[in-house]
Write a structure and sequence with these properties.
It contains 32 helices and seven strands. It is mainly alpha-helical. The chain folds into five domains: 145 residues, P-loop containing nucleotide triphosphate hydrolases (Rossmann fold, 3-Layer(aba) Sandwich), CATH 3.40.50.300; 77 residues; 68 residues, no CATH class; 83 residues, no CATH class; 240 residues, Tetratricopeptide repeat domain (Serine Threonine Protein Phosphatase 5, Tetratricopeptide repeat, Alpha Horseshoe). The protein is globular and about 95 Å long. Pfam families: TPR_8.
Length: 675
């Protein structure tokens, strides 16, 4: 059959993966990663007053020429003026979605890096492929939308530096920023447009109240209604609270609510909250006060129950607009309401009661975090936190990693609170128990801060073992951030503490981390010395897992020094030891090293056998970053045998993984391919 007698046609945007081939021999692995386009804008809610001028300016912003560079608008105004709601309404007013995605980023209590990592995850990038440095992460973030126009809403920005990393590179993109500050630097640097979110005028304030309480009721007391709008100072949060109270108290006259507010004092908005607060039952009032003492950003119902120790109703506080329930089922205070609640707590709760709420919060998180750490990293791992009692459904129906990730901001906040209140044992135990989260999710800034606080707290109570453990382990996060000097200082502090403690496993762990530090800075000879010390110490305690892992690291360091005979023997032993303790991932990593040894010694068939076996094990386990290493080693093997087709095929597959899942090695692999 001639070539001209065959034709193929493909149409449609959702065709998926298509393979055209005549003859295929050997195994074929296909990595499919469906494009993810995030749509994160908050739901548009009723009773949004039509801010005509603001909407008109936003419409012009959102519908401008799609070929123009990224545009930035700053929505600024007083706390409580409705900036977040306005940004959501403006973003949602566009009739067609942005092709590159629509992101909502709440920066309250979050670092830029962590928020940017969340954005990258929303595009489908896996955690293990998210780079550590902020510049690399920013580059990856901008590549996710692949030059397509996207919309980003940045909520609660406090300084201009928070904005720059989130700027998309696709023409026609828009960034909406909410802030209590005008962020004037963005005007000069980015040509940002400032949209003032003013308090509502009398007409719009009345319209918002009418939408909640009904126009007939307000028309019957027109003068009192105007006065109520004035007392609410045009702030939507206050107007909604007033409207909700009128709905709750169907018999209450508007004039009576006005009189109650005026009787409370000069600050009319706070007075309004006091009027609502005074109408709560004793249990609900106590709940309101104690919730303000929680050392967290937001909270779940179970924490509220355990920490406050009161049978009040969260639903009731939500109903009267004193508490906000978020889309994820968690709760938080508006900043103005929180200030009022804290004032009531100071007046209505003793110091002992207030501290009790904080301590119970810390204990709530400590129990669950310690259980998660033990579940994820195994009971045999070196740790000093006492084993917690089992709990029914400790993670609210989530997997441990998912729960830890959802509570991340609160967990760091409780570490800080424990140290501030002088509960040093709770502080270091929380810090140690966060190891699983930080190893798995690589929240490096959190890891370093938590470890530093925990180490100081352990030092305060004379627990030298824990201080050594936390300082040495902190060195890994510091190395990932390329802070070599600070990492070295932590290890220099940790080693004498571990030696003085007499804890053999701890000393072995510190020596292991010293070895990894030396490996990282290009000192394989020093690393070998440290690894040998670590293995000797682990052997004293018959810690087979520790011996297995460090043996793998030792073999790789010997390989780096071109000590091939020693490396071969060590890596063979590491494979056996890792399999004996049930860790196929580490055995496969050792296999990559052993295959490389064979390659360097000219044993082509042996190298191919070991590398292919390691590749298959890593693919089965889903360890994509190590899959890339195995394929690159196979590419090097093909280059050694002069098989250019195979070399390019292996590199192309490695590059495909990196491109599809947002890995940090894309440019290097492209260069190696000659692209």
């Amino acid at each position: 059959m001639s070539d001209e007698s065959v034709s193929n046609e493909l149409s449609g945007d959702n065709a998926g993966i298509v393979i055209q081939a005549r003859d295929i021999t050997g195994p074929v692995t296909i990595y499919q990663h469906a494009p993810v386009v995030p749509r994160q804008l908050p739901a548009r809610l009723p009773h949004f007053v039509n801010r005509v001028d603001l909407l008109a300016r936003a419409e012009s912003l959102l519908s401008a020429d799609p070929q123009v560079p990224t545009r930035v608008a700053v929505l600024t105004g007083l706390a409580g003026s409705g900036k977040t709601r306005a940004a959501g309404e403006l973003a949602g007013s566009r009739p067609t979605p942005f092709p590159g995605g629509e992101l909502y980023v709440d920066l309250r209590g979050r670092t830029v890096r962590d928020a940017l990592s969340a954005c990258v995850r929303s595009y489908g990038v896996q955690d293990e492929l998210i780079p550590e440095s902020l510049p690399e992460l920013t580059t990856l973030y901008r590549s996710c939308a692949a030059g397509r126009a996207s919309l980003v809403v940045l909520d609660d920005v406090t300084e201009p530096a928070q904005v720059y990393p989130f700027l998309p590179n696709g023409s026609g993109s828009v960034v909406l920023v909410t802030s209590n500050d005008r962020l004037a630097e963005l005007i000069g640097q980015l040509g940002a447009e400032v949209l003032m979110v003013e308090p509502l005028n009398a007409e719009h304030g009345r319209a918002l109240l009418a939408g909640i309480a009904g126009p007939a009721r307000l028309d019957a007391e027109s003068a009192a209604t105007d006065e109520l709008v004035t007392l609410c100072e045009g702030l939507p949060i206050a107007l909604r609270t007033a409207g909700t109270r009128l709905v709750e108290r169907r018999s209450m006259r508007v004039g009576k609510l006005v009189a109650d507010i005026r009787a409370r004092g000069i600050d009319s908005v706070s007075a309004l909250f006091s009027v609502v607060y005074q109408d709560l039952s004793d249990d609900n009032a106590r709940l309101y006060r104690r919730l303000s003492m929680l050392p967290v950003v937001d909270f779940a119902e179970r924490l509220a129950d355990e920490a406050t120790g009161t049978p009040g109703s969260l639903d009731r506080l939500v109903a009267v607009n004193l508490l906000t329930e978020q889309d994820n089922g968690r709760f938080r205070f508006h900043s103005l309401v929180l200030r009022h609640a804290e004032e009531q707590a100071l007046a209505g709760e003793s110091a002992t009661e207030r501290e009790g709420v904080v301590l119970r919060s810390i204990q709530y998180y400590l129990r669950r975090t310690a259980l998660a750490d033990q579940h994820l990293l195994g009971p045999g791992r070196l740790r000093f936190t006492p084993a917690p009692e089992p709990l029914d459904d400790p993670w609210d129906g989530l997997e441990p990693y998912a729960w830890l990730d959802a509570e991340r901001q609160n967990l760091l906040a409780t570490v800080r609170a424990a140290h501030t209140f002088g509960w040093h044992d709770e502080a270091w135990q929380l810090a140690e128990s966060l190891t699983a989260l930080y190893l798995g999710k690589r929240y490096l800034a959190d890891w370093i801060e938590s470890s530093e606080i925990g180490a100081r707290a352990a030092g305060e109570v004379g627990n030298r073992r824990v201080e050594a453990r936390l300082r040495s382990f902190m060195s890994r996060a510091l190395l990932d951030l390329h802070d070599v000097d600070r990492a070295r200082r932590q290890l220099d502090l940790a080693l004498p503490l571990a030696e003085e403690s007499g804890d053999v496993r701890l000393l072995a762990s510190v020596w292991e981390l010293i070895g990894r530090f030396r490996d990282n800075i290009g000192d394989p000879a020093g690393a070998i010395e440290a690894y040998e010390r670590a293995i000797a110490e682990f052997a004293k305690e018959d810690d087979r897992r520790g011996i297995a892992f460090v043996t793998m690291f030792l073999g790789m360091a010997q390989l780096a020094q071109e000590r091939y005979g020693e490396a071969e023997s060590t890596l063979r032993q590491a494979i056996e030891l890792c399999r004996a303790v049930g860790d196929e991932r580490m055995a496969a990593r050792a296999g990559i090293g052993l295959g490389t040894v064979h390659m360097r010694l000219g044993r082509i068939d042996a190298a191919r056998t070991v590398l292919v076996g390691s590749l298959e094990a890593l693919e089965d386990g889903g360890h994509l970053n190590y899959v890339v290493q195995a394929r690159e080693a196979l590419a090097d093997l093909a280059a050694l045998t002069g098989d250019e087709t195979e070399r390019r095929a292996q590199l192309a597959k490695a590059l495909e993984i990196q491109e599809q899942f947002g890995g940090p090695e894309v440019e290097r692999l492209r260069a190696k391919l000659g692209e």
